[in-house]
Sequence to fold (260 residues):
Amino acid sequence: MSGYEVRPIGVVRSALTDPATAPKQGPEGAPEAELLLDPAVLPALDGTAPGDRVIVLTWLDRARRDLLAVHPRDDPANPVRGVFSTRSADRPNPIGLHEVEVVAVDGPRVRVRPLEAVDGTPVLDLKPVL
Amino acid sequence: MSGYEVRPIGVVRSALTDPATAPKQGPEGAPEAELLLDPAVLPALDGTAPGDRVIVLTWLDRARRDLLAVHPRDDPANPVRGVFSTRSADRPNPIGLHEVEVVAVDGPRVRVRPLEAVDGTPVLDLKPVL
Fold:
């Protein structure tokens, strides 16, 4: 099967800069952060408002795509298991899913919380929580 | 920003073949279906078992990537809104999220339900529901 190209629609702006020390999941103390979107996709934001619960999809560009099994939560005490039964960033297609609340929308800037993705992480999509 | 290549890890095998008549979401009557994975990623399945709730990520290869606003649920009676506040398949990066239950795992074949993706849809990832 051939591949497909994902094209970032924006980038995460966050006080978090080090994946090694960032929370592994949003509810584990992740901060509020900003999604800075490409002005070209602004029409796609129409209808997104503060208070909405959305799933942010990111491209975890620092992940290893060749790892198929890991110690969950990077803890050597956890037995190795296949990445499809973990939320490890390391996986064949390192797409991150982050459920957040929209705090504010100001043009191409979308403030959300909590977000564990580090500064500079490419953003691929926003979807409403069903 | 440059793009990234997603590489399918498998394909959906389903009785559903027509996106126009397929359910829009799994709980809307979607059938059981099979994920036929590439044998090369089998180690990533270690730890996935019947009864697990997982999120299947797909690449909606028939979607339009140039549409930024749509009538939700393809219903002209619904006012047009930005795709980021809809679950439309049409969006800049047409990645589908499908929450399913694992029914059976047999080598590279993973039976899941319910799945609204049509036959032939590329599969990108499986993640446990948190």
Observations:
- The interface with chain A takes residues 1, 3-9, 11, 25, 38, 41, 43-48, 52, 54-55, 57, 59, 61, 68-69, 81-87, 91-93, 95, 97, 122, 124-128, 130 of chain B (CB under 8 Å).
- Chain B has a mean pLDDT of 95.
